[in-house]
């Protein structure tokens, strides 16, 4: 297993945002996510964003993102533009859960 190198990913933050999309709201949700994704990509400290679509009919989607440091994420989250940017998601989702955690180890495929 490859351990995160100090200074590179030891301070990196991963955010998992699980959302339950309302019935019939998939396209609206994807449209809003596309606008958010493009904006977040310009935020200092943002590394990557991923959208996961459910394989079953659960309507449970997952947005994951990685940030250089927790401070980068919280600065964006607490900024004035954040609430206005994510507010349109509320029209398409009826449940949310957010998990945040530091990356302390990672394994890259083929490099065990």
Automatic annotation (TrEMBL):
GO function term, MF aspect, one: monooxygenase activity
Domain ABM: residue ranges: 13-101
Pfam family of the protein (one): ABM
Enzyme Commission numbers on file: 1.14.-.-
Xref: SUPFAM superfamilies: Dimeric alpha+beta barrel (SSF54909)
Entry superkingdom: Bacteria
Signal sequence annotation: none
Keywords: Monooxygenase, Oxidoreductase
Protein name: Antibiotic biosynthesis monooxygenase family protein
Native organism: Streptomyces maoxianensis
Lineage of the species this protein comes from: Bacteria, Bacillati, Actinomycetota, Actinomycetes, Kitasatosporales
């Amino acid at each position: 297993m490859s351990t995160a190198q100090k200074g590179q990913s030891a301070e990196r933050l991963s955010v998992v945002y699980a959302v339950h999309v309302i019935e019939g709201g998939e396209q609206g949700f994807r449209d809003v996510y596309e606008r958010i994704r493009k904006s977040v990509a310009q935020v200092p400290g943002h590394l990557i964003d991923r959208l996961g679509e459910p394989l079953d009919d659960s309507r449970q989607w997952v947005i994951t993102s990685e940030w250089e440091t927790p401070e980068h994420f919280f600065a964006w989250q607490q900024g004035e533009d954040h609430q206005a940017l994510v507010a349109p998601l509320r029209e398409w989702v009826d449940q949310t859960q957010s998990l945040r955690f530091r990356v302390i180890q990672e394994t890259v495929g083929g490099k065990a």
